[in-house]
From TrEMBL:
Species per Swiss-Prot/TrEMBL record: Actinopolymorpha pittospori
Name of protein: ABC-2 type transport system ATP-binding protein
UniProt KW Nucleotide-binding keyword: yes
PROSITE patterns the record matches: ABC_TRANSPORTER_1 (PS00211), ABC_TRANSPORTER_2 (PS50893)
InterPro entries: AAA+_ATPase, ABC_transporter-like_ATP-bd, ABC_transporter-like_CS, P-loop_NTPase
Keywords: ATP-binding, Nucleotide-binding
Length: 300
């Protein structure tokens, strides 16, 4: 384990202990997740945009310490699911807990446990890498005396120490994504939520982003929940995946188990077709594809 990741690890553990103490105290609504096994639990989650049902009766548990991939074509309901569990959308139906905290009643406690990299660009091109991460340190109320050290650590973990004082506008797409990861790490989250972290990146940049996520997970035991369109990435990088289609979860399991249940040479694409009755490309409509393209264009 690198010294930097050891620092982040110590921070995460301190956070876990503080939360365990808080959970034991009066007024806490945390009821599960205290076993340390469940990072996220979704039960009967449904979400509606006016008449349109974007997520339908979704049941899913993400285990502590795993890399879980939510996989599905445009419009499958992945981002909506993530927005509800990160408290960015209000819970309409069902029950959602993050490390035992109810997203409806313990919104602030949920937010303290997570780091989130949205699909949309969250770095400011007019600031340097260091200034961007410092901004997040202030937003997350990192103690003044710890700020510089934690900002340096987050930049180093993402391999941006040499570029830290350059404007973000000069960064490549892959560097921007790593900068956003550094921002999301500043409060030493127990759960890192990444919405399409590699969309629009070339294969080398995609590989580098995943390497950093994998190192971080290996060194700190952080839970990672990631959405992606890329089946090959999910296959290689995720401990388990959930296949979503038209708002429903069609299958959950380790990639190897899902494939071998279907046949010796089955691919994840075959698994998807088997459970959804369609191909991966037959996803959402024009507006879904357009919003994904916009993100890819901004990073490209
Ligand atoms: N703000 C909104 N208003 C109305 N409908 C929406 C809104 N956001 C999403 N939807 C619809 O809800 C459905 C699920 O969208 P969501 O963004 O969750 O899918 P996704 O799997 O994340 O797709 P993508 O990979 O394109 O991001 C889609 O049909 C989408 O058009």
């Amino acid at each position: 384990m690198s010294e930097v990741n050891a620092g982040i690890n110590a921070g995460i553990n301190a956070g876990i202990n503080a939360e365990a103490n808080a959970a034991a105290g009066p007024g806490s609504n945390a009821v599960d997740g205290a076993d340390g096994m469940t990072a996220v639990s979704l039960h009967g989650l449904s979400y509606r945009f006016k008449e349109h049902l974007a997520v339908t009766d979704l049941d899913l548990d993400v285990c502590t310490g795993e890399v879980f991939g939510l996989l599905g074509p445009n419009g499958a309901g992945k981002t909506t699911t993530i927005r509800v569990l990160t408290t960015l959308l209000p819970l309409q139906d069902g029950e959602v807990r993050v490390f035992g905290y109810d997203v409806r009643r313990d919104k602030m406690a949920v937010r303290r446990t997570l780091g989130y990299v949205p699909q949309q660009l969250s770095a400011d091109a007019a600031l340097t890498g260091r200034e961007n991460v410092m901004l997040f340190a202030r937003l997350f109320d990192v103690r003044r005396r710890d700020r510089k050290r934690q900002v340096d650590e987050a930049l180093e973990v993402m391999g941006l120490e040499d570029a830290a004082d350059r404007l973000a506008s000069t960064y490549s797409g892959g560097m921007i994504r790593r900068l956003e990861l550094a921002q999301a790490l500043i409060n030493r989250p127990r759960l890192l939520v990444l919405d399409e972290p590699t969309i629009g990146l070339d294969p080398i940049a995609r590989g580098t982003v995943w390497e950093r996520v994998e190192e971080l997970r290996a060194d700190t035991g952080m839970t990672v929940l990631v959405t992606t369109h890329y089946m090959d990435e999910a296959d290689q990088m995720c401990d388990r995946i959930g296949l979503m289609h038209l708002g429903k979860l069609r299958a959950v399991g380790a990639p190897e188990d899902l494939k071998s249940a279907l046949g010796p040479d089955a691919s994840l694409e075959d698994v998807f077709r088997h459970h959804s009755g369609s191909t991966f490309d037959e996803g959402g409509g024009f507006s879904d594809v357009r919003s994904t393209r916009r993100t890819a264009h901004r990073l490209g």
